[in-house]
Amino acid sequence: MLGGLLLPLAWGSLFLTISVFMAKPQNNTSDKPAGLWADLQSFDAITRFSIFLVVAMAGVVVFDQYFYWSTIPDYSFGYLVPMFAAYVVYDRWPKISAYLRGDNDEAKGKTDNPLAWFFNVCFALGLLASLLVFLMGALIRAGQGPSNQGSLAIAMGFGGIVIGFAYLIGQNDAKGRDYDLKHRLTFTLWFLFPAWVWLISAPMVMYLDSTVKLYLLEWVTIIVYHVFDFLGFSLVREGNVLLMPKGKVGVADACSGIRSLTGCIFAGTFLASVFLDKFWKKVLLFVAACVLAFIMNIFRSLFLTGWAYHYGAGAIDEEVPMIGMSVHDIAGFSVLGLTVVFLLALLPIFTITFEDEDEEHGDDNPLPDPEAATH
């Protein structure tokens, strides 16, 4: 358990260090004094209330999901989620505060068109539904303790509440001037990562979780068996069990790759949210994270099967001296770390900006693209 806690914290420190060094300095465009408290005082009462309410609800989400982070190794990366979500908000705070204060005078427009009215109704209903779902999850948590259904309801409700409040408080600035629909949606999309990242830091509902694990287990076992068979090794497959001369190895849930998949999805979404400015780039990095997680888990399974084939089936569970973890766990964390390194290596490719793209979008929009990074 100690290794499961220290390794996520180590990778988290690496992420934040890279983020700080890659970040570009931001200038305060307002004539008001810089600082979080000064910014909060400049907002209207509804905005301040919404912010404090969301922070309190985030505390409920952390309290609920802490059980999974501390007891299930696959979700030990969850310790990083509050820190990374807070960092994304901190990273975008100059844009958020400037929007709410009304520093950009060109971003005002009429909001009485039918499309804006339609979105207003949709977001209002979504916010109400999210509040009810969050309350239902909280009641399940209070009555039954930690449960997949309750945690999913709390996480989903919280995500909808954050998005709903963002759209609500983005209607006008502190000076009472309205924003048009385009800028309200842009402002709302800045909160996508802090709102929905909690869905991957707690287990899915039991049926979905079991289905995903079984699907991944089957493919991992099939691929490992065919690779060893192609290389001429004597191996027999019986379901998710591989029979070899020195014993048999069962491809357990931990070998399904669910830990790598959830951890890499978290890492990919964080890196995309902070460093990438275009939506298609974010989606592409997310897909790359999923593909890398699966491929690297195959290599991990091949290594462990080869280790068991040579040293015996029980060798993969033996504790390595001076490290305090088994070969199985070392291979798992190493693969997760290598996958994250590969994702970091892809960032310079995704951040390439073409000259024509700059000329086309450089000065047209008074506010950045949706979910755009500030770097």
Number of extended strands: 3
Total individual domains: 2
Oligomer: single chain
Strand order of the largest sheet: 1-2-3
Unreliable stretches (pLDDT < 50, length at least 5) are 1-33, 358-366, 368-375
Termini gap = 36 Å
- Report the C-alpha radius of gyration, rounded: 24 Å
Largest sheet composition: 3 strands, antiparallel
Q: What sort of overall outline do the alpha carbons produce when their principal axes are compared?
A: elongated
Strand content: under 5%
Structural class: mainly alpha
- State the share of residues found in helices, binned by percent: 55-70%
Question: How does the SSE layout of this entry go?
Answer:
Blueprint lengths: L1 H21 L13 H7 L2 H27 L9 H21 L12 H31 L3 H22 L11 H9 L2 H5 L9 H25 L5 E3 L2 E4 L2 E4 L7 H18 L3 H33 L15 H24 L4 H7 L14
Helix pairs in contact: 3-6, 4-10, 5-6, 6-7, 9-11, 10-11, 10-12, 11-12
